[in-house]
């Protein structure tokens, strides 16, 4: 018997065994749930900073990064020393106490990190909170955590490896900030709660004893000499006496544009004042009359800050990182350094070991993923061509104060990206379509652009045509054969609010936030024609098409599988629910991967006779908003948590098959 005949018999035996077992090689792959594993992470929003002498600990996305600020002769010039591993939550606040760093980590609650090696903070303990942990302060053996809708949580940290909640007090608003002095805690409780005053004489039994209803947003609070200083949004900085805790009283105020955060140092309040206020230096020598000493303009929106000896770190976000200001002479503050942070991440595409990230107001961010366990920055291309003043004027706002109150959405805000060959195509919100050369990913260069009437939210590319989901502008078809002069060749106004587009063959499938899934034939790109529509009840956020199957994301409702074999008669096959909000979907063979906001990333089996079914969930910090599959890996963006690289695979039980060979 020949070897060829032997192999034919063996192959037949294998096939017959599989058929008798009701299996196929494809089905075998799905016998066990998808397994997720984190390979690497990079980037995120800079939310906070904490000081230990001249060492700055910065919260950037899900990591705690370490910088020496006084290493050079120029105070404020950062020298990077190291960082933690990716943590299970977004770092919202950090406090350094001795050999430990304590972190308010949103949905991960309170985290305790060892600084035995101060250049590599290591997670050693955690305590969950019922709602996201947004701020904290430490007093003695206790961490006081502002936990949003869950109010104030008091956590015993006498054993940092085993922090334990011992008490709490609910508040009527959203606990955003907390400060403690002696037996008194004060909470910035959002617009609904104002300032709350809590007696913490017995930490296990905190008790509210007074409150003061502010007229603004109560974003943050600092406490000194029986005065609570509240960053209250538009009303500015409010000084509220808590000398009599049961009867808080207005002491004084400093009017500002958009007070977001406050940090006290040496009788001075440093105020993070939003879009146009930058950082304001306010003397508190006379609390009844807080006096402006000076200010520093920042390029972004000053959302938070932390004052150290002669230096203030400003969280100038979400896309411009941390600005460092020399305050050696408080009346003459001056920018002295910057710690870059990519900021918001909205979408990703991958080509030739490079990830291209849609980085919101930051533009296009390129990352080398040749070593997925160690992704590295390549470049950042700011696609905006307008200053903040230009944006205000274009929006019809007649003053900086008005600009601070409005949505400055007339500039570029990169929301989606597709890479084909040596070009990247960006959906740049109100700025329309941008075409970028990525011949050298480390030096991307803007080639051309064309505005669109709506808000460019997503796109797909076929040949020399880009199909743009343009919000109220519907579907736009842009010719990019000449990349320096792209121009519109066709459009369909049927989508009343186009949010995503996926092209398959001669049909563009467009999610319409207001109507459902639309099938638009593009055989004649100059005259797209709608062939069919499948209504949905809620707002659709994304669509992906593979052959005759489409998967549609419908926010809080979940994900649906749709038969699109006949575009004129599309029909829903089944649905799976969402833990938070289905924001994006990617089909890979018989699995759909869904970006589910705060619910993380999930895998859905879509080839089942009864319709799709959840297969596996995997939690990630922040709001997971996009997912792309490339070369065996998932590339996932988390809005505040940057870019994540995951491996995925099915693990199947071994199947023993008799194989008789001569």
CATH superfamily of the domain at 84-307: YVTN repeat-like/Quinoprotein amine dehydrogenase
Strand content: over 45%
Strand order of the largest sheet: 1-56-55-54
Helix content: under 10%
Helices, by number, come to: 6
CATH architectural designation of the domain at 84-307: 7 Propeller
> What structural class do helix, strand and pairing data support?
mainly beta
Whole-Å distance between the termini?
8 Å
| Averaged pLDDT | 89
Rg, Cα atoms, Å: 27 Å
Number of strands: 56
CATH class label of the domain at 84-307: Mainly Beta
Annotated CATH topology of the domain at 84-307: Methylamine Dehydrogenase, Chain H
- What kind of sheet is the major sheet? 4 strands, antiparallel
Distinctive features:
mainly beta, 662 residues, 4-stranded antiparallel sheet, Methylamine Dehydrogenase, Chain H
Question: Can you describe this structure?
Answer:
The chain is mainly beta. Among the domains are: 3-37; 84-307, Methylamine Dehydrogenase, Chain H (7 Propeller), CATH 2.130.10.10; 344-451, no CATH class. Helices cover 7% and strands 48% of the residues. The chain has a 4-stranded antiparallel sheet, with no helix packed on it. The radius of gyration is 27 Å and the shape is globular.
In short:
With 662 residues, this protein is mostly beta strands. It contains six helices and 56 strands.
């Amino acid at each position: 018997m020949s070897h060829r005949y032997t192999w034919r018999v063996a192959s037949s035996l294998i096939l017959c065994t599989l058929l008798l077992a009701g299996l196929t090689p494809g089905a075998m792959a799905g016998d066990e749930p998808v397994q997720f594993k984190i390979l690497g992470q990079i980037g995120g929003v800079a939310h906070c900073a904490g000081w230990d002498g001249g060492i700055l600990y910065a919260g950037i996305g899900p990591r705690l990064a370490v910088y020496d600020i006084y290493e050079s002769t120029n105070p404020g010039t950062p020298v990077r020393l190291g960082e933690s591993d990716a943590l299970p939550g977004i770092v919202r606040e950090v406090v350094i106490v001795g050999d430990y760093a304590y972190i308010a980590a949103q949905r991960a609650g309170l985290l305790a990190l060892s600084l035995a090696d101060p250049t590599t903070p290591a997670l050693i303990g955690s305590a969950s909170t019922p709602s996201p942990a947004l701020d904290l302060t430490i007093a003695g053996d206790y961490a006081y955590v502002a936990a949003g809708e869950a109010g104030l949580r008091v956590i015993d940290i006498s054993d940092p490896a085993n922090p334990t909640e011992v008490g709490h007090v609910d508040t009527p608003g959203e606990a955003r900030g907390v400060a403690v002095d002696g037996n008194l805690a004060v909470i910035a409780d959002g617009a609904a709660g104002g300032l709350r005053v809590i007696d913490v004489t017995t930490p296990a039994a905190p008790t509210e004893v007074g409150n003061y209803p502010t007229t603004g947003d109560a974003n943050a609070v600092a406490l000194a000499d029986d005065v609570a200083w509240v960053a209250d949004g538009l009303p500015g900085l409010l000084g509220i006496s808590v000398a009599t805790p049961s009867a808080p009283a207005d002491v004084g105020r400093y009017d500002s544009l958009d007070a977001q955060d406050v940090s006290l140092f040496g009788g001075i309040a440093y105020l993070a004042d939003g879009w146009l206020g930058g950082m304001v230096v306010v003397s508190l020598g006379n609390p009844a009359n807080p006096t402006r000493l000076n200010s520093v303009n920042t390029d972004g929106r000053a959302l938070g800050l932390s004052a150290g000896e002669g230096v203030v770190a400003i969280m100038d976000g979400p896309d411009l990182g941390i600005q460092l200001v020399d305050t050696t002479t408080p009346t003459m503050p001056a920018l002295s350094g910057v710690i870059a942070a990519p900021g918001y991440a909205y979408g990703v595409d991958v080509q030739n070991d490079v990830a291209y990230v849609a980085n919101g107001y930051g533009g296009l961010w390129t990352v080398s993923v040749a070593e997925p366990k160690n992704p590295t920055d390549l470049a950042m291309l700011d696609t905006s061509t307008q200053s903040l003043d230009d944006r205000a004027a274009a929006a019809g706002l007649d003053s900086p104060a008005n600009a601070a109150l409005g949505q400055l959405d007339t500039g570029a805000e990169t929301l989606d990206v597709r890479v084909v060959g040596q070009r990247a195509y960006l959906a740049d919100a109100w700025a329309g379509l941008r075409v970028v050369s990525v011949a050298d990913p480390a030096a991307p260069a803007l080639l051309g652009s064309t505005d669109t009437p709506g808000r460019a939210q997503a796109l797909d590319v076929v040949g020399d045509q880009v199909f743009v989901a343009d919000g109220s502008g519907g579907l736009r078809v842009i010719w990019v054969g000449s990349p320096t002069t792209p121009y519109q060749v066709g459009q369909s106004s049927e989508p009343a609010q186009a949010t995503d587009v996926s092209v398959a063959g001669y049909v563009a499938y467009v999610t319409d936030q207001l109507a459902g899934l639309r099938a638009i034939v593009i055989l004649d790109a100059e005259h797209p024609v709608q062939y069919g529509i499948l209504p949905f009840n809620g707002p659709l956020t994304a669509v992906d098409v593979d052959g005759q199957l489409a998967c549609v994301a419908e926010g809080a409702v979940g994900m649906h599988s749709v038969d699109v074999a006949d575009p004129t008669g599309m029909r829903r096959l089944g649905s799976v629910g969402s833990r938070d909000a289905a924001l994006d979907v990617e089909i890979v063979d018989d699995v759909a991967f869904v970006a589910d906001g705060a619910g993380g990333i999930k895998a859905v089996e879509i080839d089942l006779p009864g319709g799709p079914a959840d297969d596996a969930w995997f939690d990630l910090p922040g709001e997971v908003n996009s997912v792309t599959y490339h070369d065996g890996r998932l590339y996932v963006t988390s809005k505040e948590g940057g870019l994540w690289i995951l491996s995925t695979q099915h693990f199947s039980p071994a199947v023993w098959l008799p194989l008789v060979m001569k």
